[in-house]
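Attaching the record inline, Q. Sequence:
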Amino acid sequence: MWIPTEHEKYGVVLASFRGTVQHGLPLEIGDTVQILEKCEGWYRGFILKNPNIKGIFPSSYIHLKNAHVKNKGQFETVIPVEDSVITEMTSTLRDWGAMWKQLYVKNEGDLFHRLWHVMNEILDLRRQVLVGHLTHDRMRDVKQHITARLDWGNEQLGLDLVPRREFSMVDPDEISVTELYRLMEHRHRKKETPAPASTHHLFVHVKSLMSANLGEELEVFFHIYDGRENRPLSERFFVKLNKSGLPKSPEKTERQCTLFVDLGSSDLRKDVYIVVHIIRIGRMGAGEKKNLCSVQYRRPFGCAVVSIADLLTADSKDDHLLKVYACNTESEWHQIHENLIKKANSRYNLSGSNTGLAVGLQLLHGDIEQLRREYMVLFTRGVSITRKLGFSDVIMPGEMRNDLYITLEKGEFEKGGKSVARNVEITVYVLDIDGQILKSHVAAGAGEPGGDEYHSLVLYHNNSPRWAEQIKLPIPVDMFRGSHVRFEFRHCSTKDKGEKKLFGYSFVPLMQEDGRTLPDGTHELIIHKCEENTSLADCPRYLKMPFSKANLPSNNQTLKGTKESFWITSFLCSTKLTQNGDMLDLLKWRAHPERINDSLSKLKEIDGSEIVKFLQDTLDTLFGILDESSQRYGLKVFDSLVHIINLLQDSKFQHFKPVMDTYIESHFAGALSYRDLIKVLKWYVDRIVDAEHQDHIQQVLKASEYIFKYIIQSRRLFSLATGGQNEEEFRVCIHELFMSIRFFLSQENKTTSPVAQTQAVFLRTFPAVYGELLKIFTVREVAGFVRETLGSLPTAVHADCLEAVKLQCITKTVESQLYINPESRCILLPVVLRVLQAHMQEQRDLVMCARILTSMLSLIQKEENGTAEPVVSEEVELIVESLLGVLLRTILEISNRPQPAGPAMRLQFQDVTGEFVACLLALLRQMSDRHYQQLLQAFSSKDNLRDFLLQIFTVFRILIRPEMFSKDWTVMRLVTNNVIITTVLYLSDALRKNFLNDKFDYKVWDSYFYLSVIFINQPCLQLESFSPSKRKKILEKYGDMRVMMGCEIFSMWQNLGEHKLNFIPAMIGPFLEVTLVPQPDLRNVMIPIFHDMMDWEQRRSGNFKQVEAKLIDKLDSLMSEGKGDETYRELFNSILLKKIERETWRESGISLIATVTRLMERLLDYRDCMKLGEVDGKKIGCTVSLLNFYKTELNKEEMYIRYIHKLYDLHFKAQNYTEASYTLLLYDELLEWSERPLREFLNYPMQSEWQRKEYLHLTIVQNFDRGKCWENGIILCRELADQYESYYDYRNLSKMRMMEASLYDKIMDQQRLEPEFFRVGFYGKKFPFFLRNKEFVCRGHDYERLEAFQQRMLNEFPHAIAMQHVNQPDQTIYQADAQYLQIYAVTPIPESQDVLQRDGVPDNIKSFYKFNHIWRFRYDRPFHKGTKDKENEFKSLWVERTTLTLVQSLPGISRWFEVDKRELVEVSPLENAIEVIENKNLQLRTLITQCQSRQMQNINPLTMCLNGVIDAAVNGGLARYQEAFFVKDYIMNHPEDGEKIGRLRELMFEQAHILEYGLAVHEKYVPQDMRPLHKKLVDQFHLMKSSLGIQEFPAYVRASPVHFTNGSPRTCRNSVPNIISPDGGRGVARRSLPSYPAVNRYSSSSLSSQASNEVSNITGQSESSDEVFNMQPSPSTSSLSSNHSASPNVTSSAPSSARGSPQMAEKHKHSRENACLSPRDRPVSAIFPNPMDPAQRAPPHQIGDATLPRSDPNLSAPDKVRPTPSSWSLDSVKEGAPSFSDSFGKMLCPPVPPRPPYSAGSSAKNMRSQSPVSASRSPQKTTVPPFTPSPTECQSTSLVSNSPVLSGSYSSGISSLSRCSVSEASGTELPAGDHLPHPLPPPTTLPNSVSSSSDEPIRRENKTPPPYSVYERNNPRRPVPLPHSLSIPPQTDPPALPPKPHQLRTGSMKLDGTSDPRVPRPRPLPRKVSQL
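Structure, as predicted:
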């Protein structure tokens, strides 16, 4: 049975558990679990990081830990009872773990590795803490280290600052907000550099002396030397080295390591050095040979120096190698270090090239005790202490030091009868009063123990030696009296066995007879001569003699005149001995009572350092005198005491205060002193008001703290001694004293008066007295003293300085121990509040006020149950009443005040703001219901309450500002928000009760709503952005405060009633911002408010336009900031739709909601797109969608213009300059050429409308220029030029004309790339709204082909699936939760046909009209209808043609536009055949023209094309068309196709003629090595003619071609009258231009039967045309027209042509009749319809890429088959052919010959000379390079059967889909002689050639038809393009066209140049210039 656990609540998983049992909970090792129930060895519970999943697990897997349970029961929370640092470490490391991995992902390697090391370090420290074996000090250090690391990591990762107290995290609920703020501030400030330590120590470790020639023992002396004052700062450290240069006693580390202690900060400067002197111990000369003499001398060796400043920068752990300089001149030994410091080292040699002293040097900082803790190993191992010469800054009682330092300076000696100077050695002894040598009291320095004697250096042959050796004499104090130091002088002979011979001595007593020690300074000692064997044991004998020349009596001239002297310098450092006589007199007052008065007077003159040295003795002396002679010396002793106390206030001696405190506590024994002290103090206080000089009285009051300490301690001692006698008397004395104080404080004085200054002095020291008074008096008594004393101060104080001091006094009072006690607080609080209120109202001393308030509020804290103690409640009430209003005003004042300039001032300014804010929060948090009620009731009027509410709401808004607290102070922000929401809940009641209905106040309510909105929108409350653990903590502690505030807003809104109208539309934006917060509950609460707003607005104005406008405006700005999501859109829609269901205004409401929802969809898409890095089509498309929505649906002009510029920026960044121009043109079109002033907007300055439009024009022209869209730029240039001209601004006009001219030049000179166009379908619900289930046509980038475009789209939509077919998708695809992309190439259908149809227009110009302003695009898909004839596939080969019409033309403001309309047309097999042959004819004509005009570098393309066509025709290609369409069955079954069959036959004959002419041109230019191929082509051509049944061409066909001036002849349209009525014409569709170059895509191979088989094999794999479409092209296929081969995606990019096949309407009957006429009688227009007849205008066509078929938009409905995208061009010719009658025989009537004959030899020159009309340009100059006949350009997936019979038929130029297209129609019919029983072979396309059996020249001349270029489309706006060739390089001259047999220029119809008068002149033809 499962039992709830009592104690087993929390545990850690010891081993992983898979949880395979029923209800098992899988556990990982290390997881923490909370246990709910237990049962027989199993626990039930959950993992803390995932509390939603509960399960069971074995109890043996869990290690239980102690835990504290909160909220026992269902929702209990478990907190582990462990060290809070451990808990924090665990949770922090978990958070870091996830973020650490992200650092790796983001490639932040440096931080990644640093954090990894820190995490490992923390884990290691955590183990140490958990083990629990650390000492208390070590544990503290470890925790400090851990928290430092945690704080570092949190800071690096941008996590929150953790408030801590003693390394433990602080619960903000358990401390006051002011205390929390202090902790946060402290944590924040700790990042700043800590205050530098004032005490420093130098650690020295001697390693070795490296030198090549040692061989002798050495002594090394270190000391610290002041280079500025040229004196040593420390005693010496002495190390002995052995002969190898290593320390002599390596096992004793204290002999080689030392600590130079107590260096001040002033000692760490550049001119303070470590000086090292090295002495060798050995023979006199370093190079002397060893002899029998064993005597050793101390001789100079070398010196080294290093600056202490170098140690501050160097790595402290590095060893230093000090250069050792040898002393060459021993007389300079004493100053060698000074010379080295002065860089005068050139006079010294380095003692060896590799000589150096290896030492470890390290500077340590801090107190010596602190160092003992931190460097424990150092001290335990052993280190000697080397002291400073003098005292440290602090001497504590009990510290004993008595060191006498003597420096052997120099000597002056006589030769003593020697020929050379002496080698003098001094031996130093210390002897006591009895003449005994003191053992071990002569020390060469620290490090080595002291000896009995000291031997000085020996300087070789020097009678004036200067040693400068310092020795230390640590003589005990009690042995000083009577002791003396003796110096013995010996000559060290280098001969006589090296004996040392005594020749004199000196001595000096250590203490004078009066008890003073030897004074510090230099002493010249007398050298007393003696014999070598003299015994100096009899000390009293020589002690009677004088020792110093300074002490010699004036009559002793003998000693005074002697030259021999010895100088020493002494320095005493003693805590007990003094050299000051006055000090000694005072200390020995009992011996000389008569001197007491004098000694007390002289005390003030004694140096302070001497007084503090004997502080305890001096104080004992003073109180001893006071006890014995209080009446006589009381005032003097008091003054002396005041002097000493104030001496300690000096910064130099302030460290001695602890000495005095210790003295008072432990050593003071004056039990009776308090009476005298009180009496004298009162006497002084009483004299204050009347005294003229206040200086001394101020000194007394300055010392009042310690005077009170002495009074209280004295009284306590007296009470202890007497059992509390005279208590009342003492109290009375104190009360009287305070009365005197209050009296002098109550005096009103001017600022400058001495009394005011004395008052200030007292107030500064007064708070220090509280603690002393509390030792005797009760808390209430002391509080009474303080209250009365502070209360006695005059209220109207004139002295500013006194006010500040008064405030400081209050501050110290509040921070004192006295105020902490609640009893004293209630007494002192009114006084404090009164002062505080006065200062805050006047905005003075705010820093101090904040400090006082902070201290006050830190003491007030609610109990755990939330109720406050009565005392605390009263205090809160008092503070609220006095300070709440003024505190609010102060915060407002500070916040609105400009921040001061200086960084220090700004810091103080921020501090004071933060502290006041913390005080306000603390106060509000302490307020209960009762406090709020009292507060609100206290307002006397509504206006006061209103002002208060406005103030507090404004302050709350300030508190919410992000800059109020540092970024990482989340804890503080959450506390702030919790206080704010609690307060707002209280205040909202007051708002409802007092400011509703007739008392409604808009300002208060508006302030309330505004506060609520910014409260909800704070970043620190957006829990969604936090980590799960942080979010959980916040929710557990505070809940989601946004929802609480949202509910409050809704509640308050509902209370407003009709006053809601005041907030519409003002609050729409703010409320909308709230609803965009991603919190479902908040949204559910707030969204219904919009329904309410709509309802009230509807009531007021009958609509809610205002609501709609405001919603739309705000949505854009808010969503662009990243707010809102798809869920919000759905929620907004569903909630509001549900709300308005029953409203009368439901319809308009639904409309508004729909509009807003659609806007949200677009804005969300836009935002998502903008998050992407690069500019891509998605961003642009999304912006276009949004821009159009603003314009069309919302009519928001400003937003529209903003998005125009956003779109422009996107295009510009992507270098879509043309699109950028079109975009900016949208804004340009909104402007007029007016002088209306325009405001500053976006990046535009304030300017007139004219200026802005001019600027836009220039920018757009510049971008059109960059995008090579020069024609568009020209129009804008003209418009600008017109403006300049109208203003007579000729300068700019000139510039504009030049710019326009440059654009014309660029059109002619620069090459333009022809873009490809692609149709893209976006299917599936996963696409953005603006793309979803829509199809677009996109203009590709330069050089971008289908594969590259497809890859780009898939990169933009990485989750999309590319569809492999071109069929329209079904509904399952549309509704799928996925992304499907369907992409294939399409062919543009140009609008500007007129330019394209004109002969002689350069290709550079035409290229623009082919690919600009395109609305419609075509895509063809071949398929078989009915039964497929395997012998001849062409019988059933249909083409499905799709025409796509866009919503806008391309190029435009985007690279892609949505398809507006789809049209599907089916092209019959016959129409298809016509198109194919037309295409091939046009290609041939183009290549021939280019060859003639020398535009081709070589003739290969023409060769290949001729080879391909002839070879295919010979092998049966054309015959297949004859078999398919010229058989009787077909003609009988399709009587309506009569005209088309005739047209096909015309084209076949035309092709034959072009081929013949092409061969003639080929022969002229063919190179010699290709002659055999040419011959083969000629032979095959004859075979081809015979296969077509052509024996020979009529005479006009046979005539040699004429070369026209600029290519093919442009017929004079006005030379031949139109003799045919409009009804007689035929509508013939025209072909358009090819779309891109393909010259080098052709292979040179012609189509062989093998290639044809390959084609048929490919096709044979699938009967389905769709499947064929999916096949990829094979480059081997040699079909002439290789369109069949490519997959739809590839091949559909190739243009083909389309011809209309209109129904046989009435207007065609005339054509039918004409078909039956003889050639002589038939009107010309029977073949060539009247160009002026609109009904006959053919649809536009386009010559383009062979694989991109073109569609014909002008087909009549029955003839239109709905086109689909296709890579075929078999479909591409839909040609209106002449109408045929039902009888086949009518087709046999010969057509009228179209031209008069002309001689075969007539040249172009002759023709030009005969022509009266100027020669016209060729229409063949196009932008596309010529095609070659090779089929490798686009492989064919042929639909022919596998039959070998078809070899060549499919590639004949008839059956294949050609890349080029022809847009000409002729009315050629079958000649009579060609009537055959079997179908005619498929004719090739000769341009408008007519076959005729008659060759009469006159007849041909009379019947010359109008030129084929005049046909136009049915739509009069869109002129029909002329047939022309593919493009040629622009730099070549226009080529000549091969002649068109039925077309002659008017002036050359007769060879003699005269025209036949019978021939009517055609009327002029209109020209249409395409509009831009």
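The first strand starts at residue 3 and ends at 4. Confidence is low (pLDDT under 50) at residues 863-867, 1594-1972.

More tomorrow.
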